[in-house]
Amino acid sequence: MSGHKCSYSWDLQDRYAQDKSVVNKMQQKYWETKQAFIKATGKKEDEHVVASDADLDAKLELFHSIQRTCLDLSKAIVLYQKRICFLSQEENELGKFLRSQGFQDKTRAGKMMQATGKALCFSSQQRLALRNPLCRFHQEVETFRHRAISDTWLTVNRMEQCRTEYRGALLWMKDVSQELDPDLYKQMEKFRKVQSQVRLAKKNFDKLKMDVCQKVDLLGASRCNLLSHMLATYQVTKLLTMTCCFIRILG
Predict the structure, then answer these.
(1) Given pLDDT bands bounded at 50, 70 and 90, which one contains residue 2?
(2) Threshold 0.85, pTM exceeds
(3) Contacts of 98 by beta carbon, 8 Å cutoff, 6+ apart
(4) Residue 99 in contact with residue 114, Cβ under 8 Å?
(5) CA–CA distance, 67 with 155 (Å, rounded to integer)
(6) Long-range pairs of 189-195 with CB within 8 A, sequence gap ≥ 24
(7) What 3-state class would DSSP assign to 163?
(8) Which GO terms describe its cellular component (predicted)?
(9) pLDDT in tens, 198-217
(10) Residue 211 and residue 63: Cα distance in Å, rounded?
(11) Burial class (CB in 10 A: 0-12, 13-18, 19+), 244
């Protein structure tokens, strides 16, 4: 007999969780909208509910930091490339000017101007070699932004939607529980229906919460690997160009 009661209880919960009536949908949307309004206006929420998401909020802060800094890095690389091209052009023009003036001056100073001009022209050509690793660096950062970060952002948006649904369901259950009379069957049935809605919303939210935390951790590790690899390539190229310039000057 107890087995039949347990089966009946679970059947009721399944029926409540699958309740798709128009009234239920309207009530659910009402509490979701109220929760969204509370969040948008910055009103104080239940401190225990907020505290339960502390780890998630810390991950979201990290995600937004990665998102912001990668955009800043992409802009900085583009600006750096422009500055290198401008500097190389100016350096080359100065080198040509010194060489032309050195040819006209037959004194020792003229020879020094020629030598300096040649060194500046060579340096300007070597400086342009930095563009290749920088272009590659920029492409990798943009790929990282448009794939890895965008994918995580979509998951974060789905999670935020589920969090709103879950917290809205909690508000709904709190409202129902304040008017609950255990002796009235209809009120108990309504409470169980809302309770089932809370459980379903929490299940969906917890799944996406875990997905977000895992993706943010992976995103942070991927960014470190990207920066380590690309900056090492840039550093090697820069050292080679500087070495070539010093050898040319000393030679």
Answers:
(1) very low
(2) no
(3) 113, 114, 116, 117, 120
(4) yes
(5) 14
(6) 192/12, 192/13, 192/16, 193/16, 193/19, 193/24, 194/169, 195/16
(7) helix
(8) Golgi apparatus
(9) 888 889 989 999 999 999 99
(10) 13
(11) middle
25-39, 147-161, 164-178, 230-244: least confidently modelled range: 25-39
Residue with tokens 């350096």: 91
Question: DSSP H helical segments within 18-149, as ranges?
Answer: 22-41, 47-52, 54-104, 108-127, 131-143
Judge contact between 127 and 183, C-beta under 8 A. no
- CB-based contact 149:67 (threshold 8 Å): yes
Q: Which residues of 4-19 are buried (b: 16+ CB within 10 A; e: fewer)?
A: eeeeeeeeeeeebeee
Q: Return the structure tokens found at 177.
A: 């529980």
What rounded mean pLDDT belongs to the chain? 80
- The rounded distance, in Å, linking the Cα atoms of 197 and 77 is 49
The distance of Cα 155 from the centroid of its chain, to the nearest Å, equals 11
Check pLDDT > 50 for residue 97.
Answer: yes
Q: Which tens digit of pLDDT belongs to each residue from 114-157? A: 888 888 888 888 888 888 889 999 999 999 999 999 999 999 99
> What is each CA distance from 53 to 50, 156, 159, 197, 217, in whole angstroms?
5, 14, 12, 20, 16
Residue labelled with tokens 């190389």: 88
